[in-house]
Specification:
By secondary structure, the chain is of the alpha+beta class. Among the domains are: 193 residues, ibrinogen binding protein from staphylococcus aureus fold (Roll); 118 residues, no CATH class. Helix content is 34%, strand content 19%. The chain has 18 helices and 22 strands. The strands form six sheets. The chain has a six-stranded antiparallel beta sheet. A five-stranded antiparallel beta sheet has the order 5-6-7-8-9. Helix 6 crosses helix 7, helix 11 packs antiparallel against helix 14 and helix 12 packs antiparallel against helix 13. The two termini are 44 Å apart.
């Protein structure tokens, strides 16, 4: 959960621990990961910063990872010259962004022979930016500025790349933790890029190119309400513009600045007691509660009152947060942790500290979920962008009306007119154009806007279908009960184009996972019931195993598995008891598993169709009827044969 809340907690922790510390060692773990050893407050600290798309992060670790001396990159060379041996004089988080800046001051000399301090050196104290260039320049070689001796350390802090300069230099290491756009950027004191882990050309990003000797531009702030200042009326106004069926979690992610899916789920859970609540589920007072819980969740950013927690399932760390999260505690055991860095390390870093170390089942689930959440956030942003474009397309009609009005009142226009007033409506005119040319300009704008708007419905449908697939994938990952199920989901995710999830003993791009033919989970009176455990499974049970007259079931309106009843005899009448059991399974293998009752749709398989171009398991269906059931697993539904029907079939 590396969102703005976690980043704020990390920045506060770094300010308490490594500010005014000296960078003793720095190097690359891999091309996108930097590790450094910092001596501060009488002890060594190890810091890791990574721009890798799978696990971008910055936090302290228990021990310094193994550095790769054979790995030489332009960024690595610049860090060695300008950061190693320097002092961290400032730590700052960009407001409501996953961006933190470490400011480092260093005196470059022809022969920098400062030895490293003993572990028993005196504690140093300070605040952000407390050391000046004068203090750095006047520091006595072999001693800290407070006089503590450093002669007991081996000389790993030497800078043998110096070119004779004697002035103090300032550089800034900017760590941007933004999914696949993450980066490590070294700036000079004038804000020019010295080097970066990833180069971004103007062709790749017109707004934020990142190349050496170019000015650094921070990520532009989102033009959305600040959640720290959210009030009941503002929340109510936001909700009024949303469809009743929209989930409140998605509304918060799309409409508020810097709210991650995990933060949104916590806010909604605190407000309603469930993360699946829709706009229609909210009562009259819930907007005020939603605003209050949003401000409460972000309050530690102002007070520094962090309380890190690791959430364990099957005694394994699977999630973490800088403050207690009620929605995580509902399905995992919360364990208070001394620091947010330690919490992040327990979940983000493989046990044993080696890249080839075995990844646990629970950790793989957490990382796959994180990858899906990141993709879901991008889709939500795409949908929001399309909605904004759709709203702008309404203006096209105004352009047409303006053009027609100008033509109708050409007789009234004079050369150089800047406006046309008709029935209380003012139409802007270009004084350098004639009346006809002004009208034609409006018609051209109309045609351009109309042409752009034609593609919006198709793009919106594709984005919404992809969002539905991601919801389905997230549900199936959460409910995967075996290692094989989770591996199948990871293979499906990578095949679908998602961020690869590291796997022990396997190089990226190679898969050892084979798709197995689904087996019946339950048989009642000779009728076999199949449940899809992944998108591929859903396709297999629906279109490979089922005949046209078999029955297909799915929880209504929520992500979940496809369930098939393969009748003993094709075309026979549906059996009420079997349908009831299958519907209970469909409810159980859906995101509504914890509900008391769930509506489940059922139809003959011939009425189910794949959605062209969509992810595995995405379908449309018709001629359905609905049953209301209590969710139940196959274990709960096993014989005796005399058991009463789980549900009653109703049209």
């Amino acid at each position: 959960m590396f969102d703005v809340l976690t980043m704020a907690a990390i920045a506060d922790e770094l300010s308490r621990t490594v500010l005014d510390g000296r960078v003793q060692r720095i190097g690359l773990v891999d091309p996108l990961t930097v590790a450094m050893e910092i001596y501060a407050r009488g002890r060594r600290h190890a810091l890791v910063a990574s721009a890798g798309a799978d696990r971008p992060r910055i936090h302290l670790v228990e021990r310094l990872p193994s550095l790769d001396p054979a790995l030489i990159t332009p960024l690595g060379l610049q860090l060695r010259k300008f950061v190693r041996g320097g002092v961290i004089v400032g730590i700052e988080q960009q407001p409501l962004e996953r961006v933190v800046r470490l400011s480092i001051a260093k005196r470059l000399t022809p022969h920098n022979d400062e030895p490293r301090p003993r572990a028993g050196g005196n504690e140093r104290t300070g605040v952000a930016g407390s050391q000046t260039a004068n203090e750095i320049e006047n520091a006595v070689p072999g001693h800290d500025s407070d006089g503590s001796d450093r002669s007991g350390w081996e000389d790993e802090g030497q800078d043998d790349d110096s070119e004779g300069e004697s002035d103090a230099t300032f550089v800034h290491l900017v760590v941007e933790v933004m999914g696949r756009h993450s980066n490590l950027i070294l700036l000079d004191d004038e804000g020019l890029v010295k080097e970066s882990a990833k180069h971004v050309s103007p062709r790749m990003s017109r707004v934020r190119p990142i190349r050496p000797k170019t000015p650094y531009t921070p990520p532009p702030p989102q033009e959305r309400p600040d959640p720290r200042r959210l009030t009941g009326p503002i929340a109510a106004a936001l909700l009024e513009t949303q469809a009743p069926s929209a989930t409140v979690v998605n509304v918060l992610v799309r409409q508020l600045r810097a709210i991650s899916p995990a933060m949104a789920r916590e806010i909604v859970f605190r407000t309603t007691g469930a993360i699946t609540a829709t706009v229609a589920d909210l009562g009259a007072d819930d907007a005020a509660t939603l605003a209050r819980e949003t401000r409460a969740l972000l309050e530690p950013m102002l007070t520094d009152a962090w309380a890190p927690v690791v959430y364990r399932r099957d005694d394994l760390p699977v999630e973490y947060a800088p403050v207690p999260m009620a929605h995580l505690a509902a399905s995992a055991d919360p364990v208070p942790t001394p620091s947010i860095s330690r919490a992040a390390e327990l979940v983000e870093v493989d046990p044993g500290g080696d890249d080839a170390a075995t990844m646990t089942h629970a950790q793989r689930r957490a990382r796959l979920t994180a990858a899906i959440d990141a993709a879901a956030k991008r889709i939500d942003q795409r949908i929001a962008s399309l909605e904004a474009q759709e709203a702008k397309s309404v203006e096209a009609e105004h352009h047409r009306i303006a053009g027609e009005t100008i033509y109708a009142y050409l007789w009234q226009l004079k050369p150089g007119d800047t406006t046309l007033e008709v029935d209380g409506t003012t139409i802007a005119l270009d004084p350098g154009l004639s009346g006809k040319e002004n009208a034609q300009a409006y018609f051209q704008r109309y045609q351009k806007a109309r042409g752009a708007s034609r593609a919006i419905p198709e793009l919106m449908e594709k984005a919404q279908t992809e969002a539905a697939y991601l919801d389905q994938a997230r549900t199936q990952v959460a409910q995967a009960s075996s290692f094989a199920d989770l591996e199948a989901l990871a293979a499906e995710w990578e095949a679908h184009g998602g961020t690869p999830v590291a796997e022990p003993g396997r190089k990226p791009g190679k898969s050892s996972r084979a798709t197995k033919r689904p087996k019946a989970v339950l048989t009642i009176d000779g009728h076999a019931i199949f449940v899809g455990r992944s998108g591929r499974d859903n396709d297999a049970v629906t279109f490979d195993l089922a005949g046209p007259d078999d029955t297909w079931l799915h929880a209504r309106g929520v992500p979940g598995s496809h369930v098939i009843v393969r009748w003993r005899q094709q075309g026979q009448a549906e059996d009420e008891r079997t349908i009831g059991a299958a519907a209970s399974l469909a409810a159980y293998y859906s995101s509504a598993r914890t509900s008391a009752t769930v509506e489940v749709d059922a139809t003959r398989r011939r009425h189910v169709r794949r959605i062209k171009g969509a992810g595995p398991g995405m379908v449309t269906y018709r001629n359905e009827y609905t049953v209301s059931v209590r969710p139940a697993s196959e274990r709960e539904l096993e014989p005796p044969d005399s058991a009463a029907p789980v549900a009653t079939v109703g049209d």
